[in-house]
Design a protein that fits this description.
Layout lengths: L2 H18 L10 E2 L1 H27 L3 H33 L12 H10 L3 E2 L6 H31 L6 H31 L1
Helix pairs in contact: 1-3, 2-3, 2-6, 3-5, 5-6
Length: about 200
């Protein structure tokens, strides 16, 4: 196994352990975004399930109770498994890219953008910049989460509606997740504006 991949795996495992033992984390160690975003995703699950149930119900012309149950199971799994998976993928990318461990700095606009984009999983410890870095990193982090949610939820809802498997269920899942993820991104934009100008 390549040394860079071994190092990335060690850091990801260590990072996962740090999440279980937050009291040992130093203040200058940066900010693991999963600690902020994952609880918010869990809270947002109820309105997301409601919105996606309506979209799936109309697209599948299916009974309300069965659709609610299918969408609920799919969203619980995608939130509890899919989001952490997307965070670990982002962390792996961060470790393997230049500036991933320490960030690119915040001296120029381009350095700020690069720092938050490449370091969206675990923000560098720029305390004075966190007011805008946290919402932007969360927005970046929702991109892989969206892709995982589309396919994972399509698969899981497809288990309930066997006749609708394939492209149809993926298209419906894409539409449902596009609506809910755009709402989440919109909320983050509002947070960014409020924190920057509030």
């Amino acid at each position: 196994m390549d040394d860079k991949i071994k190092k990335a795996l060690r850091v990801m495992i260590f990072s996962g352990l740090l999440l279980l033992l937050p009291s040992i984390c130093a203040a200058d160690a940066g900010l693991p975004m999963i600690v902020w975003v994952w609880p918010a995703m869990i809270v947002a699950m109820i309105p997301i399930i409601a919105i996606e149930t309506i979209i799936f119900k109309h697209a599948l012309n299916a009974p309300y109770v069965k659709t609610t149950w299918a969408v609920s199971v799919a969203n619980v799994v995608s939130t509890m498994v899919g989001y952490p998976l997307s965070w670990f993928l982002l962390l792996g990318v961060q470790i393997l890219t230049p500036g991933g461990s320490s960030g690119f700095g915040t001296a120029t606009l381009w350095e700020r953008i690069a720092s938050v984009t490449a370091g969206a999983a675990w923000l560098a410890p720029h305390e004075s910049e966190l007011y805008w870095m946290v919402p932007v990193a969360a927005m970046v982090g929702l991109i892989p989460a969206f892709l995982i949610s589309v396919y994972l939820e399509a698969f899981l809802v497809g288990l309930f509606f066997v006749c609708e498997r394939g492209r149809t269920i993926i298209r419906i899942s894409s539409n449902a997740n596009l609506v809910t993820y755009l709402l989440l991104e919109g909320i983050l934009v509002l947070c960014l504006v409020f924190r920057a100008f509030g």
